[in-house]
Design goal:
Blueprint: E1 2-5, H1 11-19, E2 23-26, H2 37-47, E3 50-53, H3 57-65, E4 72-76, H4 82-102, E5 104-109, E6 112-117, E7 126-131, E8 136-141
Parallel strand pairs: 1-2, 1-3, 3-4, 4-5
Antiparallel strand pairs: 5-6, 6-7, 7-8
Helix pairs in contact: 1-4
């Protein structure tokens, strides 16, 4: 898979993904660390990359744009250090790679993650919430 890491993501996470055999690039390497979020989304869509970020605005852009790509993984962790991010990211990649390849917004929390298939359509607000056990906690209307 190909990843585009937002400014808040550690270069160690980019290295971690590269060690796993993925194509991962940090915005800094492209000179885009100050680019507006919409430009980052456009770049990721053009490159076929999955956006990695701590910024919830990417979810809003994807929801408002009614796009099926790019996928995005947004981290909402108490511990934002690379080791913590990499541990949770590894779990998500193992369990949800098919969703990411087809188009998904994944919100990663400390003990669970939520998957929204893209495009997000009006009136379709269901999401899958996966607990730390790797099993769905619920599927609910939000």
């Amino acid at each position: 898979m190909r990843f585009l890491a937002d400014a808040g993501i550690s270069p160690k996470t980019v290295e971690f993904l590269q060690q796993l055999g993925h194509d991962a690039t940090h915005l800094r390497a492209l000179g885009l660390q100050r680019a507006p979020d919409a430009r980052v989304v456009d770049r990721a869509r053009t490159d076929g990359s999955i956006v990695l970020s701590f910024d919830l605005d990417f979810g809003d852009i994807l929801a408002l744009g009614v796009m099926d790509k790019p996928s995005a993984i947004i981290f909402r962790l108490a511990d934002e250090r690379a080791d913590s991010v990499n541990t949770r990211l590894s779990t998500v990649l193992t369990e949800r790679s098919a969703d990411l390849e087809s188009g998904a917004l994944i919100l990663v929390e400390d003990t669970r993650y939520r998957v929204r298939k893209l495009p997000i359509r009006r009136g379709s607000k269901s999401s899958s919430i996966i607990g730390s056990s790797g099993k769905p906690e619920s599927s609910r209307q939000q």
